[in-house]
Amino acid sequence: MKFVNILINLVSVILLVCGCLAKPSNRETIMENEKELYSNFILRWTVIEGTGDIEIEIQANCTGWTGISFAEGQIGQPGSYSDVIMGGFNDDFQKGYSEDRHIDLENPDPANGHLFDDSNDILLKNARYEEPWTIIRILRSLNTGDKQDIPIVPGPMTVGWTYSSTDDTSLGHDTAGIGRVTFIPL
Ligand SMILES: *[C@@H]1O[C@H](CO)[C@@H](O)[C@H](O)[C@H]1NC(C)=O
């Protein structure tokens, strides 16, 4: 066999083993809502009927990680924190990743800004890079019950958005802002 054929066969086997070819029509949730928070940042979401779950798609014009956050309280206020959902697509490994994190707003420490939640309550459904966009899909309960998360409730919510040119999630963002999003109408 020619080297190229061997390579193709090898790739097929790997794809089959990881199930990528086995179930190509894996039902994909249709994103019912969309909001552009910034020209380089689009948020889409669907609340999945009867499950208490929400699927969120983040499309950011970046080559690194991206994310959104919700805040409870204000910077400096005791007990206040921010709930962070972040992820991206690592080109080197051709692999998506996601992280459930939080920020201590009472005492924000720039050296260790985003702390991992004790409990990971987000599931990465999909991640890809389509130049220039990094697109990730995450499934989460509207209310995870984790005290390091913030429930997504009816009515407008303040959402922080952020993205980076690196997949190193220990490094800070390049660009960030805030917007208002009504995930669930009142
Ligand atoms: C993506 O961002 C770059 C600069 O960071 C900009 O030049 C380009 O127009 C943007 N592309 C889209 C589709 O917004």
Automatic annotation (TrEMBL):
UniProt keyword terms in alphabetical order: Signal
Tagged with keyword Signal:
yes
**In the record, which residues are listed under signal peptide?**
1-22
- Does the UniProt entry include the keyword Signal? yes
What CDD domains does the record point to?
A: DOMON_DOH
Q: What is this protein called?
A: DOMON domain-containing protein
> Domain DOMON: where?
39-164
Taxonomically, the superkingdom here is Eukaryota
